[in-house]
Specification:
- This protein folds into two domains: about 15-70 and about 350-355, Nicotinate-nucleotide-dimethylbenzimidazole phosphoribosyltransferase (CobT), small domain (5,6-Dimethylbenzimidazole Phosphoribosyltransferase, Chain: A, domain 1); about 75-345, Nicotinate-nucleotide-dimethylbenzimidazole phosphoribosyltransferase (CobT), large domain (Rossmann fold, 3-Layer(aba) Sandwich).
- Helix content is about 50%, strand content about 10%.
- The protein has helices at about 15-20, 30-40, 50-65, 95-105, 110-120, 165-180, 200-210, 215, 225-240, 250-255, 260-275, 285-295, 310-320, 335-355; strands spanning about 75-80, 120-130, 185-195, 280, 305, 305-310, 325-330.
- The protein has a five-stranded parallel sheet with strand order 2-1-3-4-5, sandwiched between helices. The protein has a two-stranded parallel ribbon with strand order 6-7.
- The longest helix is centred in the middle third of the chain and has 20 residues, at about 165-180.
- It is globular, with a radius of gyration of 20 Å.
- Bound molecules: alpha-ribazole-5'-phosphate and nicotinic acid.
- Nicotinic acid binds near residues 311 and 333.
- The site of alpha-ribazole-5'-phosphate has 18 residues, from α4, β3 and α7.
């Protein structure tokens, strides 16, 4: 935690967040318009590339380039963290799976690794709040370089973390986005790993959209009806704890979020500040996106929805963000997999627009 010389905790205050929000620029509408005009001249019937054409306009606007370029350095950052609420029977799997999956990401054998290889993206995994000690031989130091705490509190009955830790986690996420953009990433994806994390995600979406627990709670890793009812009760209790601090984003994340989710929120915000596009993934990244959008409404113009999740909270989140997923394949994995599934379609949108001749260049007209 960063603490100023006088010893007071370095809280991320509303003024700093408002300043951050004000620094988010608009994507470039001139480039969007230039690409719209180009699409109308390419060697195809007008509109024949369907939604790829819409995607090419967004890519142009966020790249400030017309025609758009395929992304050269797409990067996934997986935010790993455990959640005390998992002890209340809200997940089909135990928290011990979280550190195992971190090892799997590092070994390159998880779903996110396979899809990243296919899509030409690289993967970085960070332990923000895994309830295990991941330092030691075989684990690169980078993995724990932004660790905030071991596990987050059980949000139905206690705070996920302190206000200081929430501030630290948000700042960590911003620093991570800076690190990635400074290292050359031109497209970012926020992946998640943490047993129980669909519970705080649902609670955040429910609190910010005004929906009730039954409307936001899904099956997560595959809980049965009794598990779903336990999860509804946990989310209802968490939302009761979150509602009084609606509007204070640091307090909201400290009460009913988690260090991993707070970091992801900071990451999404800073990506927008750095004019770097993001493909959102499943319910976790979309829940964080709703928090980040509440801080900085313009930030969502820098994001696109990769994949429809089966989690109901993701639908409410995307409605709030006015985003329509690129693919709908019934995914419910997270890790960044849904975003990676959409990435080849984004590349297709950029490549067709950049590489196709115009009808006029072929000697024709229409
Ligand atoms: C082996 C395994 C790999 C995963 N990869 C992502 N998740 C996903 O499922 C979890 C969230 O669902 P819930 O809230 O129901 O626990 C998170 O770890 C999320 O990343 C996984 C879950 C498991 C079991
Ligand atoms: O929507 C997701 O990404 C998701 C759904 C269930 C479990 N983990 C992640």
């Amino acid at each position: 935690m960063t603490t100023p010389a006088d010893g007071t905790p370095d809280l991320l205050g509303p003024d700093e967040l408002a300043e951050l929000a004000a620094s988010v620029e608009w994507p470039d509408d001139w480039m969007r318009q230039a690409t719209r005009e180009r699409q109308a001249t390419l060697a195809k019937p007008v509109g024949a590339l369907g939604r790829l054409e819409d995607l090419s306009l967004w890519i142009s606007a966020v790249q400030r380039a017309s025609p758009p370029r395929p992304f050269a350095r797409p990067r996934v950052v997986v935010f790993a963290g455990d959640h005390g609420v998992a002890r209340s029977g809200v997940s089909a799997y135990p928290s011990e799976v979280t550190p195992l999956m971190v090892q799997a990401f590092l070994s390159g054998v998880a779903g996110v690794n396979a899809l990243a290889r296919l899509a030409g993206a690289t993967v970085r995994v960070l332990d923000l709040s895994v309830d295990a000690d991941l330092t030691g031989p075989g684990v690169p130091e980078d993995v724990t370089s932004h660790k905030v705490r071991r596990g987050s509190g059980s949000i139905d009955v206690e705070d996920a973390m302190t206000l200081e830790e929430a501030s630290t986690a948000l700042r960590a996420g911003m620093a991570i986005a800076d690190e990635e953009v400074d290292s050359g990433a031109d497209l970012l994806i926020a992946g998640d790993m943490g047993i129980g994390n669909t519970t705080p995600a649902a609670a955040l979406v429910g609190t910010l959209t005004g929906a009730n627990a039954a409307e936001v709670v899904g099956r997560g890793t595959g809980i049965d009806d009794r598990g779903w009812m336990r999860k509804c009760a946990a989310v209802r209790d968490a939302m009761r704890r979150g509602r009084p601090v609606l509007g204070d984003h640091v307090a909201l994340l400290s009460r009913i979020g988690g260090a991993d989710l707070a970091a992801m929120t900071g990451f999404l915000l800073q990506a927008a500040v750095r004019r770097t596009p993001v493909v959102l993934d499943g319910v976790i990244s979309c829940a964080c996106a709703v928090v980040a959008h509440d801080v900085a409404p313009r930030a969502s113009l820098w994001w696109i929805a990769g994949s429809r999740s089966t989690e109901p909270a993701q639908k409410l989140a995307l409605d709030r963000l006015a985003l329509e997923p690129v693919v709908d394949m019934g995914l419910r994995l997270g890790e960044g997999t849904g975003a990676l599934l959409a990435l080849p379609l984004l590349q297709a949108a950029a490549a067709t627009c950049a590489e196709m001749a115009t009808l006029e260049e072929l000697g024709g007209s229409h």
